[in-house]
Each structure stands twice: as C-alpha cells, then as structure tokens.
Design goal:
heterodimer, A: 5-stranded antiparallel β-sheet, 46 helices, globular, B: mainly alpha, two-stranded antiparallel ribbon, two-stranded antiparallel sheet, 65% helix
Chain lengths: 1249, 465
C-alpha cells in the first residue's frame, strides 16, 4: 500500500463548511432544547395569574375609591390634617426650638452610643481572655492580670453607660415635648393611614406584582428570562410537601409532593368572611379583564369553591397539611395538564380536553384525579364513620352523594353478600359494614379476640325461621321469582327471569329452583306460639283502619288507603291479605306479629306499639285484632306451587352433584335413592340427601329430599342468608366479593366479558342500544341540544360510565353490574355450566342511585392515611355520629321531627318587628331564653336576585295560604321556634311569621328532617278530632324533638328509650318499645344532649342541694320566712288550684272540669327525674317560647298576683319556687305530703285568690 | 367518536402527508441523480409500444405519484374514518394469518438465504433504492392501522425501527463492497482497498471527521430528545407486573430463548457461550483471507455463520420480541389488536413423557419402578435413581448431540477439511460452539413440530434442558 502522503483525504474547505453548518445546527438544536425546556404551560398560567391579581387589586382599589363613605372620611381627615398643619405652622418658631433641642440630644445619644459600643467590645474581649485563661488552667498570676484588665475595661463601660442613660432620658423628654406639640397632626395621620389600610395593602400587592417603578419592573422582567428564572424568580414551581400523607407507589410509598398550586395559584385565596377572592365560574370570554368584571374565573385561576371546608387555615383541611391529591388524587408532582392526570367528568369534556390540551388518559398512573362526579369518594379514606359527611351541624351535607350511597348500601343490605370490612387485623382501614355475629359462639369468639371487631349490621330482610306460620309455599315461590310483581316498592332484588336466564336450561331449571327454595323454607320453618284475641271478640276492621292510621303504623309502613303517608321504612301493607295464610291461621299470625313482633323474630326492627286491649265489657277493644282485621280485609291470594318435571329435577340434581361426586357415584345416588357418603362426612348442602338413620327412604320421601337439596343448594348459591335468617345457614359466610378495597381493584382483574357487544345492540331497559344512547348524548352535548339540565346530567353520566366500561374502568363495570348484573353473562351462558352463571340479583336502583353507590364503593380503597389524618372523633361528635346511625336504624324520624324545616324568604325588613316582653313576661325569663335557645342569625347572608335580603328561620307551618285569595295576598303563617336576630331585631320563639306566598323561596328552603307521620297525623286529626285546630292536633301527635337535649335529663331518657312509659295524655299513640340494646339506648340518650350542647351523661340537679335551697331561702326571706318555709311555700304554689286544673299533682288525680279549655297535661311526679331544671324554669316562665303549639299558659304571669298569700304574690319568685318544688317533688311528698291550697275554710270556700 | 381504536385520525393523516413529502423529496433527488447518469431502458408502453426512454422519466413519474399522495393527505379535511388511502383489510388479514413464530422464523431464514444467494442482484443501487422505497411505502401504509401504530409508534420502539433501516444499510454496504471486490478478484483487478490507499492523515482527516460526527450525533440526539419524550410507565410493583413484561430491546433475543429453554440455559449458559464464542473466533479462524478488505467469496463459511447468528437469530428475535410478542407473551400479527384475552394452548410435553407414555405405553418410571429397588436403599438415593432413569432418554439424546455430534461433523466432507486444518482440539471447540448455536433453532423446530417442552426435565433439581 502506498505510504501516507501530505495530501488530505477530504477536501479541507468542504470540511470547514460542514463544520460550520454542523456547528450551527448544534447551536440551533441547543436553542430548541432551551425553548422547549422553557415552554412550560404553567409559566403562562402564572403570568395570567399575576395579571389577574393585578386586575383584581385594581378593581378592589377602584371600589374603595368609589365608596362615598371612604372618600368622605378621607376628605374629612385631609381637611383636619390641613388645619392641623396650619395651626402647627403658626407655632413654627416654638416647634423649631423644641425640635432643635431634640436634635441636640439625639446627637449626644448617638455619639455616646458609638463610644459605648467600642468600649463594650473591648470589655468583652477582656472577659473572654479571662475566661479562656480559667479554662486553660493558667497560673494564678496570669489570671489576676487578665481580671485586672477586664475590671479596667468594665469601669470605662460602666461610666459610659451611665452617661448614655442620662442622655437617653433627656432625649426621651425632648421627644415627648416635641410629640405633644405635634400630637394633633400625628393622630390624624395615624387615623388616615388606618382608614387607608385596605387600599394601601392592595396598592402594595399590585406594586409588587406589576411595579410602576421602572427599575423594579425591569428587575421583575429580567427575573422572568430563561436561565435567570432559575434563581428564585417569582415564576416558579410551587410545591406542597406532605411527608406524612405518603403516596403508595407499587412496592413502596413516598412522601407526597403536590405541585398543583403551580397552575392553580389562586386556589386558597380568600377574603374576609371566607369569601373566595376568585370565585369559580365559566366565563364565556377568554379575556382576563372580563373575568374580573364578571367576577367569575375559570380553572386554573379560581379559588376553591368551599374555602370554609378546605385549604384555609381555619378550615378542617388546611392546605399545608392536606395538599391537593390526598382528596382529589391525580399525580401531584406533574406540572402539565397531562401529567397531573386530570380526569374528565364525561366523554364530551374529554373531547374538549383532547382538543384544548392534547389530553389523553394516562393509564400508567394508578391514581388519576377523581372525576368531578366522584369527588366525594376520597372522603372515605379518613371519614370511616361517613355520617358526618351527610349530616353535619357545622358544614351541612358535605358529601351528599357519598352519603346517599352509604345509606342505600345500608338499606339494601349489600353487605349481606359483599363484606365491607373496616378493619385489617384490628386496624381501621375504612367504613365498616359487616353483619353482626350470627350466633352466640361467634359473638363470643370475636369478643375474646382483642384484634377482632364485631360487625354491627342487622340482616336487612325478615327472618324466615317461622315463615310457614305466615304464608304458603306457593306464595314463597311466586314472591321469590319476582318480588316487585307482588309489591312494586319492595327492596328485595330480583334473582330470577334475568338476562342470563332466558335459555332452555333456565326455563327448565328455574321452576325447580323456585319450588326447591319454597319447600326448603317451609320444611325447615319452626312454629311460633301464636296469640289470640279474647274469646268471642269480634274484630272491627273500620276501627282497625283508624287505629292503623293513628297508632303509628304509617310512620314506617304505607298502605293504599292512606296515600298521604309515604314512608318506605317498612313494607307497603296494601296486599298483605293476599300474602298471609288464609283464614284464622293468617289472622293469628298477623295478630301476634302486630301485638308482639319479638315473638316472631327476637331481633326485629318492628317495635312493640303497646297495642294492649282497653276498656271493659261493651267498650272492650283489642286494637291489634282490629288492625289485623283491617289489614286482612280483602280476598286471600292464590299462588299455585311451581310446576316442573321430575326429569328437570333429576337433571338439576345431577348438575349440582357432579361437582362433588364422580359420574358413577351420581348415577348410583339417583338409582339407590341414597347419598353414597356417610352423613358425618358431608360438609355441604348434600346433607339434605341423607337421612339421620341412613336407611332407605320411600320414593316420595326421596323426591322431597331431592327438592330440599335443590332448595338448599339454590339458597347457598344465591346467598339468600345474607339478608334473611334461614335455619341451617347460621354459619354461612357472605358469598360476594368483599368490597373494602374494591376502589383500588386492578381493572385488569375485572371481567367485562362480552359487555361491549351487549351494549352495542342491547343494554337499555327498553331494549335499545346503549351505544346509540351514548353516541346521541355526545352529539347533543357538542351541539348543546339537551332539553333540560337534568337530561344532560343523566345522559352524559351514562356516556361517562359507558366509556369507562369499554375502557375496562371500575366505575363503568360497577354501573353495568348494578344496572343489569347478569348482562356480563351475555353469550357466556353457552359455554358455562348452569351452576357457574352469574348470581348477582338486580336491585331496583335508578341510574342516579347507582352513581351514588358507585361513589361509595369507589371510595373503598383500604388505603388509610396515617392515623393523625383519620377522623376518629371522641366525645360529642362521636356521640352525635353514633346517634345519627341509631336515628336512622330505628326510624325515629318516621314519627318525630328531628330537624325543624328552615324557611327562607325574600323579606322586607321594615315589616319585621322585634319582640318585646309583654306585661306577663319576666326579664329573667328572657335571659334564660337567650341561654337555652341562643340567638340565631336570621339573615341568610346574601341577597335574592331581586336585591331583597333573604331571611331564614326554623319553624313550623301554622296556617296555609287561602287559595281563594289573590295571589298577592296569599300568605303562609309559620310559628317561629328559634330566637332570631334579623338585622338587629330580636324575635322570640312563638312569634307568628307571615310569609307572602310569592316571597317564599321554595328552592332554598330546607325541609328539615323527620316527622312525616306527625304531619300526616296532624292533618288527619284536624279533620277528625280537633275541628281544624292545628295546635291541638300537634299536641296529639308525636312531639318534635327540638332541643330535646336541653330539655330532658339524659339518665331518664336512657331508661325511657328502653322501656317507654306513658307521659302525655293528649297523644293518640304511645312511644313504642324498640328492640334496643342498653348500649344503643345510652348512645341515643347521649346524642340529644351532644347535639344541643347540654351536659351529659349525668346532670347535677343543684336545686335539690341545701346550698341552693339555703340561698333561695335567704333571697326570699322577705317574701317567705326563710329556711324550710321556702320549699313549703313553693310546695303550696305547686299544689294550689292552678296546676291541678290540668295535671295530676301531689297525689291528687286531675279532674278536668272544662274539656274544651283544660287539656290534661303530663303527671307532675315525673318531672323531677325527667326534665332539666333550667328548661323547666323557662317552660314555667313562658311555655310558648319552647313549644309554640302548646296549650299550657304561663302559670304565674308577671302582671297578675295569682296567689297573694304566697311569696307575697311575687310571680317571679313563685315561678322559681314552682320549679324548685317540682325538682324536690319526692322529698316534699315525703316531708309535707298531700296538701290543699288555699286551705278550704269551713264554708268550703277557697280563699286567697 | 366512541371507537377507542380508530385506524385513521386527523393527526395520522397529517403525519403521513409529511412522510410522503419526504419520500417525494428523496425520489426527486434520485430522479435528478438518475438524469445525470443518463441511463436508458427499453420499456413497453401501451399505444406507444416498445420505447427506449430515460430511466429518470420513470423515477420522475414515481416521484410525482408520491407527491400527489402527499398532497391528497394534506388536502383532506373530511371525516378521518372515511379516508380511503389506507392499508386494505384483506392485506392485513393475510399478513396476520401468518402470525406464527414458525412462519416468522422460517421467513427470516428464507430471507437470509435469499440475501446471501441474491447478493449480486440486490446490491445494485437501483434495486436497493426500490427496496428502500417499498419498505417506506409499506411502513407508511401500515401506519394507517391503529394496532401497527401502537407498536411501532411507542417512543421506545422508534429506535428499533430506525435500527432496522440502519442495519439494512450497513448490510447492503458490506455486500456491495464484498461483491465488488469478489468481482475484481475474479477479473484480476486490484481490490477497492488497494486502489484507494487507506492510509490517511490523523489530522485533519480522522480527527476532524470524528468531531463532525460527534457534533451531528449530538444534534440528532438533542432533537430526538425534544421531539420524543421518554415514555414513563407505571411505578414498579411486586404485586402487579406489566403484561407483557419485556426485557430491554437489546435483550429481547435472550428473552425469546426463554420460550424454548430453561432460564439457567437461556439466561446463563447461552449468553456465556455467545460471549466466549465471540472471543474464541480469532483463535478458531484459520482462514487468513479477507484481512483488511471486504470479501464474501473468500470467507463464505465465516460470514454466513456469523450473519446467521446475528441476523435471523439475534436481530430477528429482537424484532419478534419487540413488535410481535404481546400480552401473555403471545404472538400477534403486526396489524392485530393486543388482546389480553387471546389464549394459546400450551400443551407441551417432555421427552421423557413422550418416550415412556406415548411410545412405550408404560407409566412414568417413578410410578412403575418404585417398588423394584430393595428397601434398604436410602429413600433419597431411590428417588434420585428414579429421576435419572426417567430422564435417561433425554440424557442419551443430549449426550449423543454434544458427544457424538462433533465426530459426526468430521465425517461431513465440508467440515473434514476444517478438521484437517484446525487439528483436534480447535475443531472440537469449534464444533461445540456450532452445536450450541444450532441448539436454538433445533429446539424451536422440536417445539413446533412435536410440542416438545424439555429434553431433560428435572424440575426437582431445577435442571431442565
């Protein structure tokens, strides 16, 4: 080969050119890289955010500057300042002298200060040197020298400091002199700056963001430049670090970093009164200036819509502790729209986002943001008791959808099949919804295990242990096949005739299964000892009807004859006569059930209504019998047994048996009428195919056994025991997938099967295609073609779920599972065994309810954050939550009003007049009223659209508008139940509030809670009994439980709840006795006190203590004679002719002389244990302040000397005495006993009045 | 709107427009180049009959066609789903119906053979250009398929696509030079390398050009980094493995081996053999020809063997692993949806089962012979013996393959010459390496032909072959 030459291989000039170009390319690509790096969308958002802040500040500045009051005040102060300055200039000479003096002194102080500083430093060095010498153990001589040096320095310093002190004092004197000369001006200046605080603050903010100063502006602009912006620029990533709210990531978990505020920079900005500074909205314009004008800001510029609950320091979820993703999920570390894993609320929004933000679903992030519709789901992470999210005195219903889902699950008993275990080896991980232990052994086992927590839920269906007494086999199978056919309102789901039961197999086997269930239940049912009415008693159905409507049945049940009562707590009883056994058998059962439900089912929710017979002879009435007769009036139903062939039965037996036996053994079993395995070895349902004795059976018996086997097998398969107590299934476990961590279920583990194909052609209840429905919805959303917002909501909701489903998402899966549970078997039944088909029944949920249930289930993640974040309240909040659960459980609200309705209306404040004490009322009473019923703000805090103020109050309707009147004149009357402050005017409870019908804001009124039956009953009683007098009717109905906690003593309520005695004589029904445990009664008793802020569980009745009584005696020594005389005289007040007009008291039975006027009140011997002293006193001062509808008059009005002989007729003292006598009732009965006042004189005339 | 897997979208059409425009630019240049060369060709044109026309006019025609295609894509503004220029479904279903590892490997081997046999034809620039055009057109049309796009367009698969083209180019370059040199040798002319003295100056020729390459590569990497973001997937989790779980792309050949061999072989022994084998090549190679210049004919065996190991058995396996292995490591066609629900029957049997049960009709020795051993023997020994008896067919087969195989090779006349030149030890090492290399395709064939799982299957000792 040739040796190397000096010639270049490549032409050098070309190489230079290539080099030049490639160097240029490298330069360009570096620029591109930097631009790309700098081109983050959040920078634009922050720039816009800063611009908005400037605009907003300017707007607020303008508002302040436009405020005439502000301007007037500033002008005034300016003027004052001017004149102050003028007067100062008049005395300028004098001031100058003082000023000079001050300056001199100040100069001297300055000089001395400097000197002193120098000498102090020298002194300190000397001290340090000495200290070092001590530390280093220098010889004594050296230490002495050093100490001497220090002493010398210290002497100098000491001299200077004295001098300085003197000079300082002189300077202060001079300053004071100067100040006194200029004080007037200085005060005005201070006031002026005070007035201008808000304005100056705004100007400061604005100047910081967009400085007017050219240097500052330049600096700010420079700080935004690339690279320079890395050095603490104002445009930067904002990060919330939450080390204790860790983020689970695959195998590990790491601290949470939320950078959401990088774009959502205004999210926590609130003004005074927690008002969002940048209220969220959807302005049409793209121009930030318009947003400020409209005061509506789009994302990401808006403030959180609920600053009272979230982010602010005073809220329960402050930003630095909770961040954003702990509630919203999403990828907190992401700083782009995409990386943050935003989730669209429906497909249409997804399409918009795709267009606007290049949105795509990042399925690699396991915690995408919860779409808006499921925002509430994540509350469950910390709020395991849920109730506080639905009922909350401070914040209202903060998660209503989640709460609805929770209630639905409780109501429909999902947990019967799907365990929702709130504990993982004793550690709380989420809401706990599990069945209570079924047997005593199980309960004991759990109680003995410190890590186990027993479930609390009762099975939601009725017990089937004695079902044979109640109904027939034919009805059982008729009912089971499709419960809604018999009772459209039933909560029992449908198991049969569903989407995967329309083929030949199902048509053949289903009747066998139904017959099997019915026969099994009848055969295993054990009889109950039924009760009978008195021999010869003729039940009266018409009277029964009245009893049914008055004795409280309608609080839980509905009946076609009473359309106004709509309670769905218990079943609709309209067709019960068809259902129960015909004739005496059915009557006996119903009579027993109505009279004593516990006999049938010891854990029933149906209470004992005290329907005991009453009256004698001709007037003897047995209400239970009458009600049973009323309910059974009508033809008994006829429900023939299911028809099926013996062949089908055998085939089904073979299908089931082949799971446990070989084919040969199955054949043998059927041929020999005997199960081939010994009874002691059978663990499953096959037990039904073997006999105790093991001997051969007759053919008929064998048929029965086979059908029993099918019945038992079917019950096992469908898990009927999840809702019903069924003999033989005491130890059965729930059959469904546990749900406690379903919200995080790996979507790849869901089996959507052929659902997409199903929804393509079927899917809608009307047989239509879901795909068509959804396509249509998205088309309409693009064109804004929806008829109503509700339609839009429901259709786009369906579209969301559909899209979720075809992308194998959890929400979609759940949606379809609840809509049509068996549709997942579409085209799968062909390749599945009959017994492998899906079993989930169809519940009567509408799509909105499904969404609520989904919200709850998706929140079940079993990923509790660290303990400090979980809401495990103690004390009052805990008792409140437990009480709410019990109110729900026992349907207390069926009868009682628990929360009074809140009425809102547009008011003319001039028409509202403050209440005044009348001549009859006491000042002390008013004070007590304010204490027990604290003044509430009657102004809703915002104005109506037409600009009138909105007034809100709690009360009950007392009169309805007359439809005959002109629409302008129609008005509602309400009794005010609370103490109300309407713009400074105080209204006492019991005031009549007249609300023009047109001003009533129906949509903003909160209808309160509970008392539906009471209202129905009141209306009925007004017609039948009280001749239209509403107040009397209310007295006959269950009382509202308003301020019950302030009223009754907790220990009494505890006893009363467990065994309620008769209190009121006016009511047409009695408080029933519920199947309540002592724990539950205690919790419920505590609840009322907890809600009303009253002390509990024990109350001290100091009115019985000698200290109190002595003090009272002393205070009334002028009116009575002190000592025992106080109580004695009080006892006389109580026993005087007044109270006994209506109450039994002091051993004397009440005799109502005028039934029109005097209404019998509760016996007063109960009061001491039942009522709280303060409440009692207020009641005696003015009963209408507490219960506006009561007939009780204020007994001892101020203006009237009722008993001049007692306490010298001073009503106020008498009233307190009355209360004290009531509180010391037992003692006085013992000590003084039955007395009469005024004592009867010889002529039988009463004296004293 | 609801279709979650749209074949055509607006952005796909726009992207393809640019791709076709690029293709047009390439072919415009090519036309210019062809015009400058001034080649003519006789073609038969309807009406005009046989005509001698410049080749450049044909290329011009083709370039125009591509330009029109590009314009059609640019101009289209209707519903993307209705766009007509797309890969026809019948073609897709034909391609997908051949989606079997057997077909893939067979075609890879056939392609490899054709590449070697037809080397003189395909190294011609025009042929190579036509092949490049065909592959780009195929790519462009295939991109109209959603599933193809999902696989090819994954940011971490893009380098593999470009690797295919780069690999093609360098293979072509090698063959072109080798064919040219071989021809020169035949004609007695000096080799290219001799004609152009390769001795050049370090500066500026070497260092300068290396610096230029460095700069340009940096540019490419920077722009690539800006344009295609690194794909982030889910956080690693021990409870949830991604499906499919794939090794880094350069190890996908090894992962494919795992389908046929136990991990200790596919993951430990074979990679070691590959490395050792590559290191051993200089010591085994006795052919002194081909040093310092390109040739094929003078080193046929070495080149074919190496290329077989590299192309069909390494690169093709990477392609297979990247593009064709989907969920559950199932094989998917390039236009096929990666359906997690697709199932394949995996009824593979071990050699011992084939012999004892199917061939001899007896049970497994562990059952049938369990009673034969005297009771005083320790249980462990009996169990071990039973296992060894059970697997004896496998041991015999492997023993024959590795023990007798090399001697068998010596008897083949072609290798006889090798043996003579190399001597016993060198040949034995060579033969073992060759046999190990052949073990993979052999096992593949056995798996496909006989559902053979393992030749020796001793899961008790974690020893499977």
């Amino acid at each position: 080969m040739a040796p190397a030459t000096d010639k270049n291989w490549y032409k050098l000039s070309t190489m230079h050119k290539v080099f030049a170009w490639s160097a240029f390319a490298l330069f360009v690509s570096t620029i591109i890289m930097m631009v790309d790096d700098y081109d983050d969308e959040w920078r634009d958002y922050q720039r816009t955010g800063f611009r908005l802040a400037t605009l907003k500040a300017r707007q607020q500045e303008e508002q302040i500057l436009k405020d005439p009051r502000f301007n007037a005040r500033v002008d005034e102060l300016d003027k004052q300042l001017g004149s102050a300055n003028d007067s100062l200039s008049d005395q300028q000479e004098q001031i100058d002298v003082v000023q000079n003096e001050f300056d001199e002194k100040a100069f001297t102080v300055g000089v001395l200060n400097r000197k002193a500083r120098e000498e102090r430093a020298k002194r300190d060095v000397a001290r340090a040197n000495y200290d070092i010498a001590v530390r280093d153990a220098k010889p004594q001589q050296e230490r002495d020298d050093l100490q001497r040096l220090f002493n010398t320095a210290q002497v100098v310093v000491g001299g200077l400091e004295t001098e300085l002190q003197v000079a300082q004092t002189e300077q202060d004197l001079a300053a004071a002199k100067l100040n006194s000369e200029t004080k007037a001006r200085d005060d005005i200046e201070a006031e002026l700056s005070n007035v201008r605080t808000d304005l100056d603050r705004l100007i400061d903010i604005r100047n910081k963001i967009s400085p007017t100063n050219i240097v500052s502006r330049l600096k700010r602009n420079i700080m935004e430049l690339p690279i320079i912006d890395g050095f603490n620029s104002h445009i930067k990533i904002k990060q919330d670090w939450l080390p204790k709210l860790s983020q689970p990531l695959g195998m590990t978990s790491s601290a949470r970093f939320d950078r959401c505020r990088t774009c959502h920079m205004n999210i926590d900005l609130v003004g005074s009164g927690n008002v969002p500074t940048f209220p969220a909205g959807h302005p049409d314009s793209n121009n930030p200036e318009d947003w400020v004008q409209e005061n509506q800001f789009p994302q990401p510029f808006s403030t959180h819509p609920h600053p009272d609950l979230y982010l602010t320091a005073a809220s329960p979820h402050p930003l630095p502790e909770f961040g954003c993703t702990s509630c919203h999920d999403g990828q907190g570390s992401g700083t782009s729209f995409q990386n943050a894993s935003h989730s669209p609320n429906e497909p249409h929004q997804a399409h918009e986002w795709e267009h606007d933000f290049d949105y795509f679903h990042n399925h690699f992030w396991e915690y995408p943001m919860t779409p808006k519709r499921f925002n509430e789901s994540t509350c469950l992470k910390c709020h395991h008791s849920v109730t506080e999210l639905g009922i909350n005195p401070k914040f209202g219903a903060t998660a209503p959808k989640l709460f609805e889902g929770y209630q639905l699950i409780q109501k429909y008993g999902c947990f019967g099949c799907h365990e929702i275990n709130g504990y993982d080896s004793g550690v709380a991980i989420g809401p706990d919804l599990r069945l209570e232990p079924n047997t005593e052994e199980e309960a004991k086992k759990i109680a003995d295990d410190p890590k186990a927590v027993a479930g609390q839920m009762r099975k939601v269906g009725p017990s089937l242990r004695h079902v044979a007494d109640k109904t027939t086999e034919g009805f059982l199978s008729y009912w089971t096949e499709e419960p809604k056919r018999f009772r459209p309102t039933t909560r029992m789901p449908q198991f049969f005739d569903l989407a995967n039961q329309d083929d030949a197999h199902a048509v053949k086997f289903q009747p066998v299964e139904l017959a099997g269930i019915a026969q099994f239940l009848m055969q295993k049912s054990t009889p109950v000892e039924l009760m009978k009415p008195q021999a010869g008693y003729q039940p009266n159905a018409e009277r029964g009807r009245k009893m049914f409507s008055e004795r409280g049945c309608l609080a839980c049940h509905s009946h076609v004859k009473f359309p106004e009562a709509k309670s769905s707590f218990g079943p609709n009883l309209s067709k019960i006569h068809e259902k129960v056994r015909a004739g005496q058998e059915g009557f006996g059962w119903l009579y027993t059930w109505v009279k004593n439900p516990e006999r049938h089912h010891p854990r029933t929710k149906m209470p004992n209504l005290f329907l005991d017979p009453q009256g004698e002879g001709e007037k003897y009435i047995d209400p239970a019998a009458d009600i049973a007769a009323f309910l059974l009036a009508g033809k008994p139903g006829s429900f023939p047994n299911q028809k099926f062939s013996g062949k089908a039965l055998d085939e089904l037996v073979v299908t089931f048996l082949s799971k446990t036996l070989t084919e040969a053994k199955v054949r043998e079993t059927l041929a020999e009428w005997k199960y081939p395995v010994g009874r002691e070895f059978i663990k499953g349902d096959e037990i039904e195919l073997s006999t105790e004795s093991g001997e051969a059976v007759s053919e008929k018996e064998w048929q029965t056994m086979k059908l029993n086997y099918i019945g038992r097998r079917t019950i096992s398969r469908y898990g009927c025991f999840g809702c019903h107590d069924i003999p033989g299934f005491e130890n059965a476990r729930p059959i469904g997938t546990p749900l406690q961590d379903w919200g995080r279920k790996d979507p790849s583990k869901l089996a959507p099967e052929h659902i997409e194909e199903y929804l393509h052609h079927h899917g809608e209840p009307n047989g239509g295609s879901t795909l068509d429905r959804v396509t249509d919805a998205i088309r309409k959303a693009s064109g804004h073609e929806f008829g109503s917002p509700e339609e839009k909501e429901s259709e786009l909701s369906a579209a969301y779920f559909y899209e979720s489903l075809i992308h194998h998402g959890r929400p979609g899966f759940l949606w379809q599972k609840l809509r049509s549970p068996r549709s997942y078997d579409f085209r799968k039944t062909e390749t599945k065994g009959y017994d492998e088909r899906l079993k989930m029944p169809k519940f009567p949920f509408d799509e909105r309810q499904i969404e609520s249930v989904a919200t709850f289930v998706l929140g079940l993640t079993a990923e509790p954050p660290s303990e400090q974040y979980q809401y495990h309240p103690t004390g009052r909040p805990a008792d409140r939550i437990e009480g709410e659960r019990l109110l729900e459980k026992y349907n207390c609200g069926g009868c009682h009003i628990i929360d009074l309705p809140e009425i809102q209306y547009r008011a003319n404040l001039d028409d509202i007049f403050a209440s005044d004490l009348s001549a009859d009322e006491y000042e002390a009473g008013k004070k007590l009223l304010f204490k027990l019923n604290p003044v509430a703000n009657g102004l809703a805090g915002k104005d109506s659209e037409t600009g009138e103020p909105i007034v809100r109050f709690h009360g009950l309707a007392s009169s309805l508008p007359d439809p005959e009147d002109d629409i302008e004149d129609q008005e509602y009357g309400f009794d005010l139940w609370e103490t109300l402050d309407v713009g400074g005017k105080i209204l006492f409870p019991g005031e009549k509030m007249l609300v023009p019908a047109q001003s009533l804001l129906i949509d903003k009124s909160n209808t309160g809670r509970g008392g539906d039956f009471a209202r129905v009953l009141v209306n009925q009683l007004m017609e039948t009994t009280t001749k239209g007098v509403r107040n009397l009717a209310w007295q006959m109905a269950p009382p509202p439980l308003y301020k019950e906690g302030v009223k009754v003593q907790t220990p009494w309520l505890y006893q009363f709840l467990q065994n309620p005695g008769k209190i009121r004589h006016t009511t047409v029904l009695r408080m029933p006795k519920f199947n309540m445990s002592a724990d539950e009664a205690r919790s419920l008793a505590n609840y009322f006190a907890a809600v009303d802020g009253a002390p509990y569980p024990y109350q001290r009745i100091s009115e019985r203590e000698s200290d109190y009584l002595d003090a009272r005696a002393l205070a009334t020594i002028e009116q009575a004679h002190g000592g025992q005389a106080y109580l004695d005289e009080s006892w006389k007040v109580l026993n005087a002719t007044l109270c006994m007009k209506c109450h039994s008291v002091g051993g004397k039975q009440v005799k109502i002389s005028d039934p029109e006027k005097d209404i019998r009140g509760p016996d007063l011997d109960l009061t001491a244990e039942r009522l709280r002293p303060e409440w009692t006193l207020l009641w005696l001062y003015k009963p209408q302040w507490i219960t506006p509808f009561t007939s009780m008059p204020a007994p001892l009005p101020k203006s009237k000397k009722t008993f001049p002989g007692l306490f010298k007729g001073v009503g106020g003292i008498q009233t307190i005495g009355l209360r004290d006598a009531l509180m010391n009732y037992n003692r006085l009965m013992e000590d003084v006993g039955n007395i009469t006042y005024p004592p009867k004189d010889a002529a039988g005339q009463q004296s004293g009045e | 709107m609801i279709d979650p897997h749209p074949n055509m979208t607006g952005s796909v059409i726009a992207g393809l427009a640019w791709l076709y425009l690029l293709l047009f630019a390439m072919n415009a240049l090519w036309t210019y180049y062809s015009l400058k060369r001034g080649d003519h060709r006789v073609v038969w044109i309807p009406i005009f009959g046989r005509q001698d026309i410049p080749v450049a006019s044909l290329w011009g025609l083709y370039a125009t066609f591509v330009l029109l295609l590009s314009m059609a894509h640019f101009a289209y503004s209707g519903d993307p789903a209705a766009f007509l220029i797309r890969m026809p479904d019948w073609f897709k279903s034909i391609v997908d119906s051949f989606a079997q590892p057997t077909w893939f490997f067979g075609l890879a081997v056939a392609g490899f053979t054709a590449m070697v046999m037809l080397r003189e034809w395909w190294v011609k620039p025009t042929v190579a250009w036509v092949l490049l055009n065909a592959s780009l057109l195929f790519l462009a049309l295939s991109l109209t398929d959603y599933d193809f796009r999902q696989i090819v367009g994954k940011p971490d698969n893009v380098p593999i696509v470009s690797m295919l083209f780069i690999l093609g180019f360098f293979t072509w370059l090698f063959f072109k030079q080798a064919v040219e040199n071989d021809r020169r040798r035949e004609e007695g002319r000096p080799l290219i390398e001799e004609e152009n003295s390769e001795k050049i100056l370090v500066w500026p020729d070497l260092v300068y050009s290396e610096m230029l390459c460095m700069i340009l590569l940096t540019v490419v990497l920077v722009l690539w980094g800006v344009a295609l973001q690194a794909p982030l997937e889910e956080p690693a989790s021990s409870v949830k493995t991604p499906n499919p779980s794939k090794a880094p792309w350069y190890f996908l050949g090894l992962q494919e081996m795992l389908v046929y061999y136990d991990p200790w072989l596919a993951g430990v022994v074979f990679p070691t053999m590959i490395l050792v084998g590559l290191m051993a090549i200089p010591y085994i190679d006795f052919n002194k020809l081909g040093n310092g210049y390109y040739t094929f004919n003078e080193r046929k065996f070495a080149i074919v063997t190496f290329m077989f190991g590299f192309l069909p058995m390494w690169v093709a396996m990477i392609i297979l692993g990247t593009f064709l292995r989907g969920p559950n490591w199932n094989f998917f066609g390039i236009y096929e949806y990666w359906d997690v629900h697709k199932l394949e029957a995996l009824n593979n049997v071990n050699l011992s089962e084939l012999i004892w049960i199917d061939l001899l009709g007896a049970g497994m020795p562990s059952v049938t012979l369990a009673g034969v051993f005297p009771a005083f023997l320790p249980e462990l020994l009996v169990d071990s013996l039973l296992i060894l008896i059970r697997e004896s067919p496998g041991f015999i087969v492997v023993g024959i393959y590795l023990g007798v195989g090399p001697f068998f090779l010596v008897m083949v006349p072609y290798f006889r010459k090798f043996f003579d030149r190399m001597g016993f030890i060198r040949f034995m090492v060579f033969a073992q390496l060759l046999l190990f290399m052949a073990a993979l395709p052999l096992k593949m064939v056995l798996r496909w032909g006989f559902n053979l799982k393992y030749i020796i299957a001793i899961p008790e000792w974690f020893f499977n072959v």
